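Why should sequence recovery work at all? Because a backbone constrains its sequence more than one might expect. Tight turns favour small or flexible residues, buried strands favour hydrophobic ones, and helices have their own preferences. The token representation captures these environments compactly. In the example below, the structure is given first.
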């Protein structure tokens, strides 16, 4: 079966996946199988061998069970490079790329000290380190498995970051960590448990709930803790950058202002959603 005909069969096997996402998944699969750019493979329009068809059948079965393609292949593309991912860490998202881009655009100085809170796969600190080799970057997470993956991603991308086990919600941990930073960044858990009802199964059944959800009664708990830590650990002129729940943009901004931040700016992503905040004390 040639590629163009196979795509129609592939779509028929996965009717519950939205067409735009399905096209993206198919592109990832084809580039992985042929180790070529998708456009180049399209021109060739190759026939699949029996082994390739058998391999594709396994992938389709896993997709039918709502497993994300990034976990099937064990990697995800983020900010111009690939990251090793498992179900122990979140799959890096495009909106987080925008957060990384914002930090790099606004901070050109060398030798800055940076902390990423809740690092997961390490996509934020590794991407920053690739672009700013002289920055001293720490990455903290409560999960040992996540820290191992972050360390591996730094190694695979030929950079060095400092991984630290810790819980930002633990006041004792906060008191013991007194290092001063120029930048503190975080993409913390921010989805209230009540929102599970409207989320897709590929997320709910595969991605770590520890990195996704917060109590309905305290949806801003991580931002409060990050703010408290930042107030004690930012240098003069230091900045905080956080990714946020689009439905709590103004509430998160107000939270940081009440904590004592003077310049708190709510930013939209490329889709016009409130998805980032940058703040400073001065």
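From this structural description, the recovered sequence reads:
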């Amino acid at each position: 079966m040639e590629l163009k005909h196979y795509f129609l069969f592939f779509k028929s096997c996965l009717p519950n996946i939205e067409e735009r996402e399905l096209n993206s998944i198919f592109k990832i699969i084809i580039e992985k199988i042929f180790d070529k750019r998708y456009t180049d493979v399209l021109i060739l329009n190759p026939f699949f061998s029996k082994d390739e068809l058998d391999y594709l059948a396994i992938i389709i079965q896993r997709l039918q069970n709502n497993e994300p393609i990034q976990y099937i292949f064990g990697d995800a593309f983020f900010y111009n490079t690939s990251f090793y991912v498992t179900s122990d860490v979140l799959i890096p998202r495009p909106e987080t790329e925008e957060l990384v881009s914002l930090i790099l655009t606004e901070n050109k100085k060398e030798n800055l000290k940076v902390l990423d809170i809740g690092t997961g796969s390490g996509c934020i600190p590794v991407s920053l380190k690739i672009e700013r080799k002289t920055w001293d970057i720490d990455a903290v997470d409560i999960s040992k498995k996540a820290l191992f993956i972050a360390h591996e991603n730094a190694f695979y991308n030929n950079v060095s970051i400092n991984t630290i086990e810790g819980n930002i919600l633990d006041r004792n941990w906060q008191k013991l960590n007194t290092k001063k930073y120029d930048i503190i960044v975080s993409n913390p858990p921010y989805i209230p448990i009540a929102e599970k009802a409207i989320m897709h199964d590929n997320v709910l059944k595969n991605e770590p709930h520890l990195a996704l959800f917060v109590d309905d009664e305290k949806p801003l708990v991580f931002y409060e803790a990050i703010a408290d830590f930042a107030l004690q650990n930012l240098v003069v002129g230091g900045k905080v950058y956080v990714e946020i729940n689009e439905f709590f943009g103004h509430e998160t901004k107000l939270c940081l202002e009440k904590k004592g931040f003077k310049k708190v700016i709510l930013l939209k992503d490329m889709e016009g959603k409130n998805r980032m905040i940058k703040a400073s004390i001065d």
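A few observations help interpret the result. The chain has two domains: 3-65, 90-280.
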